[in-house]
């Protein structure tokens, strides 16, 4: 951990930017940031994204990986980690790390 904490507004802005980029801004209905016991995040098929408040203390790459993972679930509309799912996540993250 690099000790740099970000505010909730930063995390929410990152979520909004990625939702636009991934094309799920219409499906994303609600974003919550709260303590979670065992996961970094979850997303419901109804478009409720819940992010673990611990993410606020994680580096940008970790926040990005979690956000992209959950929003690709929303894009594909099912919970499975298929080949397509993994390829899409990888492509978005590689694109982000190049820019
Ligand atoms: Zn998943």
From TrEMBL:
It comes from the Bacteria. The keyword Protein biosynthesis does not apply. CDD domains: M48_yhfN_like. Keywords: Hydrolase. The keyword Iron does not apply. Residues 8-96 form the YgjP-like metallopeptidase domain. It is an enzyme of class 3 (hydrolase). Its EC number is 3.4.24.-. Pfam families: YgjP-like. One of its GO terms (molecular function) is hydrolase activity. InterPro entries: UTP_pyrophosphatase-like, YgjP-like_metallopeptidase. This is M48 family metallopeptidase. It comes from Thermus composti.
